[in-house]
Amino acid sequence: MKKKQVLTMTMAVAMAAAVAVPACADGEKVKITYAQWGNEVETAATQEVADKFNSEQDKIEVEVVKIDHDTYVTKLNAMATAGELPDTGIMSEAGVLKFAENGLLADISSMYGEGDAKPLDSLTFRYQGTPVAYSAANEVLNLWYNNDLLKEVCEKQGIDPSEVTPPASADDAWDWDTFVETAQKLTLDVNGKNALDPDFDADNIDIYGCTINTLPWQLEVWALSNGGGYYSEDGTECTIDSEATVEALQRIADLSNVYHCAPPVTSAANALESSLGSKKVVMATDGAWNVGTFLGPSADFEYGVGVLPYMKEKVTICTGGPNVVFATTEHPEEAMEWLKWYYQEENSWSLIEAGTWMPILDSWYTDEEKTDKWINNPNYPEHDMYKSAVVDYARDNSKSTAWYYVNGTEEFNATLDSVFSGVWSGDQSMQEAIEENLDELNEIFEENNA
Fold first, then answer.
1. I want to staple 183 with a disulfide (CB 3.0 to 4.6 A). Which of 12, 76, 209, 285 is the partner?
2. How many CB atoms within 10 Å of residue 44?
């Protein structure tokens, strides 16, 4: 299997042996570089933020370095070999721990001190227990719904909408059986019969009650909810074949193949635009970024948001692209000072206000004034609904996605995507699919986490 190119230990050694760049003379600003993969417009916008930082203090000057997205890792490889890595930069979530393993990332545990508002703990990337990155934004998974379609189905079925509206509070979250039964009630065939009716025509479905995003990294949430997981909590063991994990993933396939309340899995089914946006699916799971990328700006229906249903544990998972301090910087304290300033919500306010990003600092989840500033705007759904279903849920029920503490998740998840395909089609059970590919999955894990 072809692996994604990563910085190697040989490169790390070569980089460490390179001649260090002299520090700035007394009285001069320390110059810090920040690498990112945006286009020209995004790079200019990032430099504007850096210029604001540069103008607000007289110790540090930040220069933004543009690297094309498609060649980002390749370029960093070359820079590492030459001993010319930037001081700081953005990374993909799945690549952080490989860089840390090769000694390329600095320990950032001193970035926040006592009394500081800190990133939520679930947004901390750790290598062997040491913080090496914080996400620049937060994103959690939720259950979203087309409220117009929900009401339409309820009217046809004579159901009170309040009985089938996804709960916005973790305290009231549906258990899995309730979720499946509700999705069946909201699933209608072309004759107007729901999926609980003995005369339901499963071959001619008009409206589906639900769909689950089947991107492998998102499916991890169901394994965790069922008391399992792709990996052990400390990241030292691959547990993809555990009974709890296999059972949870099989339940996702059963929504379509057994209960007929979800559409057959296709790549298109992974986006809210093609699920809720089709006006043929009532409820769908996906990330909070959809408020800013689809639901707020372009959805032509009233939407709502609830917490995920649960199997055994009420849990969601979070993610967010991180910034890092490269270990070879001559100015680690200044690099951390820049990133700490850059992480402040006002520097990404347009993305937060739009609903594309969620804040990372804990104060935005606990300080009512800050929370209201965040979600009291027309891009968001009703205040109390969003606060309970997204803000409070992210604060109290969120766990880190595996790439925060396990290496090689990109390759592992790409393999899972192929492994699961026969299950979605109904040709294999989840047990059969995982057992058949377990050696390969374990090999990927062990190669990346030795």
1. 209
2. 12
Sheet holding 124-127, edge to edge: 60-66, 30-36, 88-90, 322-325, 130-135, 124-127
Closest CA to 305 of 252, 382, 357, 371: 382
Q: Give the model confidence (pLDDT) of 305-361 as tens digits.
A: 999 999 999 999 999 999 999 999 999 999 999 999 999 999 999 999 999 999 999
Mean pLDDT across 410-422: 96
Model confidence at 26, pLDDT cuts 50, 70, 90, reads low
End-to-end CA distance of the chain: 18
Number of domains in the chain: 2
CA distances from 338 to 47, 85, 107, 331 (A): 13, 17, 15, 11
DSSP3 helix / strand / coil % (the chain, rounded to 5): 45, 15, 40
Altogether, the residues listed in the chain come to a count of 450
Instruction: Mark whether 149 and 282 lie in a shared domain.
Output: yes
- 330 three-class SS: coil
83 burial type by CB count under 10 A (0-12 exposed, 13-18 middle, 19+ buried): middle
CB 127 within 8 A of CB 101: yes
For residue 111, what are the domain limits?
9-138+320-402
pLDDT band for 267, please (50, 70, 90 cuts).
low
Over residues 226-235, the pLDDT tens digits come to 999 999 999 9
- The reply to whether 45 and 106 lie within a common domain is yes
pTM over 0.90: yes
Q: Are residues 337 and 396 in the same domain?
A: yes
Q: Which residue has the tokens 């945006």?
A: 38
CATH code at position 212: 3.40.190.10
E strands, 354-423, where? 398-400
AA letter at 21: V
Nearest-angstrom CA–CA distance, 390 and 440? 36
* 3-state class (DSSP) for residue 404: helix
- HSE at residue 140, side-chain half, CA atoms within 13 A, is 30
Closest CA to 334 of 8, 28, 49: 28
- How far is it, in rounded angstroms, from Cα 5 to Cα 10? 14
Residue 281 parent element (H or E) = strand 281-287
